Amino acid sequence: MTVSYSLEVANARFGGFSNVFYRYTLTSRQRDLFERIALYCDHFTNTNFIPVSFVLGFYVTLAFNRWWGQYTSFPLPDNLMMVVSGNVHGRDERGRLLRRTLMRYAHLSSVLILRSISTRVRKRFPSLEHIVDAGFMTAKDVEKLESLNSDFNKYWMPLTWFSNLAAEAREEGRVRNDVALKLLMEELNKYRAKCSLLFHYDWISIPLVYTQVVTVAVYSFFAFCLIGRQFLNPMKGYKDHKIDLYVPVFTLLQFFFYVGWLKVAELIINPFGEDDDDFETNQLIDRNFQVSMLAVDDMYQNLPPTVRDKHWAAAGSPALYSQTAGPGPLGALPLWGQRWSLSRQRSPGGVSRVRPGPDWEAGRPVWCLAVVRLSIQFKLLYFSVRNFRCGGAAGCVHTQQCIQ
Length: 404
Prior knowledge:
Elements: H1 16-24, H2 28-46, H3 52-72, H4 78-87, H5 93-117, H6 119-124, H7 128-134, H8 139-147, H9 157-172, H10 178-203, H11 208-228, H12 249-268, H13 281-298, E1 342-346, E2 352-356, H14 358-362, H15 366-389, H16 399-403
Antiparallel strand pairs: 1-2
């Protein structure tokens, strides 16, 4: 006998051929067993038996905190270059050489650590010779770096050169006092701490077993949803099986949210790759090197002339606005605090009272009126609650207390 199912698959829809398999291939007993399994799976997927939201939410939070922590741990030379420019003196060639070399050592340390953890930087500098060609280190620096026998990452060596060169500048008088040298060492240690933190972020990852648990939980949850969210025979009176949605909209939305959430965590778990949303480490390297050299070389004692400002003779130095911007709605409110328009006076009996100041009558601080109105409303609400507790009786013994 020929089984015709052309009508069942005339329109392409979600689950069309699975319905054909269910209706024409399975026996009545098998269909009944499938419906029981579907109800069983639907029960546990709808009762939050698998805590997908909790497990996935905690995992995404952990991945996001690591992602943001790695971004804030990126070694930026801005503070260090300001300290070097202001405390390593000398306009001659020796002073210029000291400042540029100090910043080059600091920058070389960040290049070495980023070369160890970032795919983009590693491809840019596959060997130390490429770093020499880029101008971040010299051939003598490579010899010194390779002469030290160590099985660990040697990104810290240029920072050691920095500290020794700073001490040498102090002996030469380029760094004028020990306070300035101490400030240099403090900023250097902050810079080194960020390089070290990036290295440890790369070394210590989120435990693999937790990543596996989250991935298995999400995909197993939707595997059970694929069975449990099937539309069953409405003639049998199953709960929530009265309307046949050809496309399970809410299940698809749930799938998009949860799987998208998981993909976000997988994307940001390592931001030093080559994805579109990963950190642009090469651009940061170029920016840091250019800015640091400009700060300690071109901008050293390169100041504009010191002249009197426009408000030299003005008493209040009023803030200026363009005609399009204007002072705004908050421009008329001085930053004196929320009670600035209330003045205090002492009554003849010695009791301190608060009365409205002259600005109150002018109506300028409208929000002060709102504060007073809100205070009065709270008092009325308090009296109403006390009166309700007393039962509203005329002879209540607490009436006088309630009024007070």
